Amino acid sequence: SSHEHKLNFKKSKEACLSYIQDAMLQKQWRRAAEFLTFYVEALEKDYSREAIGPSEMIWRIGTEILCHHSRSSMKEFNCFMEQMKTLGVKRYLKVCLEHVFHLLCNGQIDEAYQNLSLAESWRFGEQTAIQDKEMKLIQAYRGLLDYYSWSKQKNILLEHGPDGFADLSVEQEMHSCFRKAAVNLKEIIKVPGVWDLFVKCYVDLLEFYGDHNEACQVLNEYAYNSKFPANPNAHVYLYQFLKRQGESKKSLISALKILHDIVPSHELMIDFNTMLQKSKKRKKRRLGLEVIFAVLDYAGWKENVKAWSCLARQVKQIVISEKHLDWIKQEWNSRKDWWPAFHFSRYLAKKNWQENKSLSYEKALVAGILLGKDCKYFKYVSHQGCKAQVKRFRVLKKFVNRHNPVYLRISG
């Protein structure tokens, strides 16, 4: 019967897709290609309507196979993509974008630019308005390639100087690329989203031509506009720009404070801690201690000498002055149950001593203050240091022994 035929056809089609998936998962690209051929042939008899149409299946599966197949070539990939563009109007711009990415990954920049230009001129009734986001991406990536051309021309000028007729033509080409790039990059970063690369390129263009106010406005909008998703990089770019412009410490601290709230383990937290420690304001120095403790909560910082040096320096200053011991106590209370095993075990003492004596020194100082003179880490490192007759380890041992009452006050 007709119903039974349709049911059997549907089962065979689903089985074929299952075989394709299995082959792809096992990286059997030839086998996957053979099953895809059968699938395409079968679809010629299929008149059903599905949420994800057959053409999208073919596009996504075919692209993956061609990207990995040992006998695949750029010519075949380009031919396949051109066919996919004609299969579905609704996916036309998405296919164009994927084609462009593949061309760029294979170093075919001119071909990618040409494809973007053709896609930008594409019009198809109401579909043009529906695919507005994809069109903006097309324009943005074209702006990115214009920036790439501008950067090449700029480097030629910087290398050879601005003199001569040849350089004049290069300069004119550079300015032309700047205008085209700036228009498209400016448009895409108005749309809420994560546009890191586009923002960096646009700011680079503005800075080169001395438009620092516009660059600052763009970066502030990208970092602080609530319509944009929370993005640590936005605050990194703003901080780096402010630093290049020689802005005040207050502005730099403000930018890094938000970065600290989002990513307390970020590498810039060392810079943040250093600035806060140098501040004359007690509130900022307190924040500096909080920042460096938070950094060392993460495994990636466990063996970072600079981080331990920052903590050791601030802890030592507080202990000597005997002011603000409550700051250390507050930070230590939430960590005393797990930091000893995480940072200050005897195993780590041996390992750190063998691999990096500077690291073991800084950690031993912190361990001695936080856990007292009987701490396993401190005892092992100070013993090895004294045994090796290294003066600073003898001084370290005396310092911790002298200030052992501080440990009692911190431990409560």
TrEMBL record:
Q: Which Pfam families match?
A: TAF1_subA
Q: Which GO terms describe its biological process?
A: transcription by RNA polymerase I
The entry's cellular-component GO terms read: RNA polymerase I transcription regulator complex
The superkingdom of the source organism is: Eukaryota
Kindly give the InterPro entries that the UniProt entry links to this protein.
Answer: SL1/TIF-IB_Component, TAF1A
The protein's name: TAF1A polymerase
State the species of origin. Answer: Neopipo cinnamomea
Q: Which gene encodes it?
A: Taf1a
